[in-house]
Amino acid sequence: MTVPERPLVATGSQTVGPFFHFGLTTNAPLGSLVRQDTPGERIRLQVRVLDGDGAPVPDAMVELYQADASGAYPPPGGLLPDGFGGFGRLPTGEDGTCVFETIRPGRVPDPRGGLQAAHINVCLFMRGLLRHIYTRIYFAGDPALAEDAVLALVPEDRRPTLTAKRAEASGSWLFDIRLQGSHETVFLDL
Amino acid sequence: MSSHTGGVAAPTGMVVHGARSQPPLLYPPYTSTIRRAPSRPLIRIPETFRDLSAPLYGSLPIGDADHDLTRQHAGEPLGERIIVAGQVLDEDGRPVPNTLIEIWQANAAGRYVHAKDDHPAPLDPNFTGAGRIVTDREGRYRFTTIKPGAYPWRNHHNAWRPAHIHFSIFGTSFASRLVTQMYFPGDPLFPQDPIMQSIPDEAARQRLVSVFDFDLTEPIWALGYRFDIVLRGRASTPFEERT
Fold it and tell me: Whole-prediction pTM value?
């Protein structure tokens, strides 16, 4: 393969470790991506992280990045005119979960001229991950899943690992990240 | 795609740029990777889908004391006062201005302000160990802090982490996100530390070690260490080909 030669080599990644909270997650408002007046369908999104034994991971950090309800990302280094920044960050608790308040994102263009299915980008950090890993949260039942160009790269039997499911009782969207095992979540190489 | 082999079989006479500069996901000497590293190959997203700008981290103002960890409390922390400064660049050598850097570290005794840190070393009421700064127009940053202590952990018998400062940086794209650790020159704990040793390439490993710098050192005040950081640029080699 051809890789363009570049003058510098990226700095190596190292684990976030177990003690990041006082440095990275003291800003509790980052659990909510919305303001009172943010347009769009409000959702409560519960992310749960499970290790290779199926045990909850109590010391992970989950970062989200998403478009607004119209399918727009904020401009580089800024916010959309309505104040939407699309970024969230929370640590998991003892039960391996964290809960974000956000909106269901709109569809963003794909580079081939179509539209991607609505999704939220995820960046995951934890002790035991020497470098962060990326995944995407899609929404179960969305008819656009069938035409999403990124999902099309994923073997069909693994695609359900990328969809959040709606809990009947609470109305929350639930997304499990399984680090290993037969239902291991699909992780993306950006 | 070779996800866990720890090396890249480049065609003869050709070296994949940046190969072996990133740690593999599974690195058994660091035992926490064993049940937490994804076991299946990552799915590579075409370059055109990676071109997503980095988010702006919240909108919290950065306080005056956020880059000076020795001035966040009523008194001065114990320990060796140091200046840690450097430049954030991308792989093409372009400065990365206006990007958030967050750091966190143990105190001089090797103890974190964290409920789960049970190392029997004292906390310092005058030191929290967390800082933040936004890089200037030339991608430069500068913190004042104290040199963190080494500390024991339970990864293997008599395991000790070399003194380090954690860094978190956003950069210009969603793919340029970096969390890493900065070490101090000449630390005898390097060879037994599986976290540092997880980086396969020796030169890449050494770039995690800050450089003592007399030009940064302030007379009768603080020793200076330089730590430059290179973030992945756009259209970079995916991670899997670097491990």
Answer: 0.93
